[in-house]
Amino acid sequence: MDAAEADHPPRRRRSRLVTAVFLLLVLAVAGWSAPVLLGFDTANRGTIALVATLQYAVPAGAALTVLGLALRRWLSTLLVGLLTAVLAVLVLPRAIPDSPTPAQGSPLRVLSVNLFFGRADAAQVVRLVREGEVDVLSLQELTPEAVTALDRAGLERLLPHRVLRSGPGAEGTGIASRLPLRELALARPSALAQPSALIDLPGRRDVEFVAVHPLYPMGPGTAEVWARELDELPRPNGEGGPPRVLAGDFNATLDHSPLRALLGTGYEDAAEVTGGGLVPTWGTGWFPRVTIDHVLTSGGLVAQAYSVHDVPGSDHRAILAHLVVPD
Predict the structure, then answer these.
(1) What mean pLDDT comes out for the span 291-317?
(2) What integer pLDDT is reported at residue 7 of this predicted model?
(3) Per-residue pLDDT for 3 more than 60?
(4) pLDDT number for residue 110
(5) Phi/psi-derived region of residue 196, left when phi > 0, alpha when psi is between -120 and 50, beta in every other case
(6) Alpha carbon 165 to chain centroid, angstroms
(7) What pLDDT, on the 0 to 100 scale, is given for residue 8?
(8) Quick one: what percent of the chain has pLDDT higher than 90?
(9) pLDDT over 60 (residue 12)
(10) What secondary structure, in 3-state letters, does the chain show?
């Protein structure tokens, strides 16, 4: 037996090893996609966390498809290619702005900030309010100390009308407004405060506003509470009712079925409408950055612009939406 023949068994072993590793990677992408595609994304906190990172499965699947073509592993490449195509159809439209909708009416600029147990830089929050000419501010994880720091930095002068439900740790949430408001009770009782108000706009139409913060699905038993609180968020008003804005930290991406179901009732996501739906708003430590803060609108409100801003001291980024309330 010559040297070339003797080398065949090691080559075959290497080929089988490459095939096995590649197939494992393909199965990993399939497992990544399964909770959304098969409808068990809310099964537990593990599947909820996995689904939060689904947007990253698209480039991972695309890279595997190219690798599979180079390795000539046709069947497994076909599988991962089809999966990637399905995920791309689900995810990528969020980065494509909708056709502009002409709208005349009252402007409404909405800012949402998670203060990370009240530790966020109060001066930066107030700076965003001032420079963004914000009309209504949704504050999550609002502590009494954070209220004091924000007002010391000038928030009360800019947004004097408010419904604040401050509390220890992550419990507190608040609404601060440049415009007069009247407190409502639109959200059901929840683990974390979710206050609501009717914003008195200069035009003919007022707007209902809910500061959203369902329980984060991170501890034992929290997944069920998270799903229930998302499901219990108020639906849009019927024809003739006031428009509504839900703004805050939803602890959910647009891939989670409870949030998709909420959007299916008639809300629009301002980030998705304006092409910013894949811009991450939260990320800390080893976990990938994900998009869990949202401004949802209903009742004909038009999202004209959307942006994301860093806030020192917080694990979230602030989100700013420029809306128009048609007359």
Answers:
(1) 97
(2) 54
(3) no
(4) 98
(5) beta
(6) 23
(7) 66
(8) 85
(9) yes
(10) CCHHHHHHHHHHHHHHHHHHHHHHHHHHHHHHHHHHHHCCCCCCHHHHHHHHCHHHHHHHHHHHHHHHHHHCCHHHHHHHHHHHHHHHHHHHHHHCCCCCCCCCEEEEEEEEEECCCCCCCHHHHHHHHHHCCCCEEEEECCCHHHHHHHHHCCHHHHCCEEEEECCCCCCCEEEEECCCEEEECCCCCCCCCCCEEEECCCCCCCEEEEEECCCCCCCCCHHHHHHHHHHCCCCCCCCCCCCEEEEEECCCCCCCHHHHHHHCCCCEEHHHHHCCCCCCCECCCCCCCECCEEEEECCCCEEEEEEEECCCCCCECEEEEEEEEEC
Confidence of residue 1 (pLDDT cuts 50, 70, 90): very low
DSSP 87-98: HHHHHGGGGSPP
Beta-carbon contacts of 43 under 8 Å, excluding residues fewer than 6 positions away, are 35, 223
Task: Report the range of poorest mean pLDDT among 3-17, 28-42, 216-230, 242-256.
Answer: 3-17
DSSP secondary structure string, 281-310?
A: -B--TTSPPB--EEEEE-TT-EEEEEEEE-
Residues composing the chain: 327
Displacement of CA 278 from its chain's centroid (Å): 9
Delineate the domains of the chain, giving CATH numbers in brackets: 3-95 (no CATH), 105-326 (3.60.10.10)
Structure tokens at 323: 């809306």
- For 119-171, the pLDDT digits (tens) are 999 999 999 999 999 999 999 999 999 999 999 999 999 999 999 999 999 99
Maximum alpha-carbon separation in the chain: 93
Query: Residues 226-264, buried b or exposed e (16+ Cβ, 10 A)?
Result: bbbbbebbbebeeeeebbbbbbbbbbbbbbbbbbeebbe
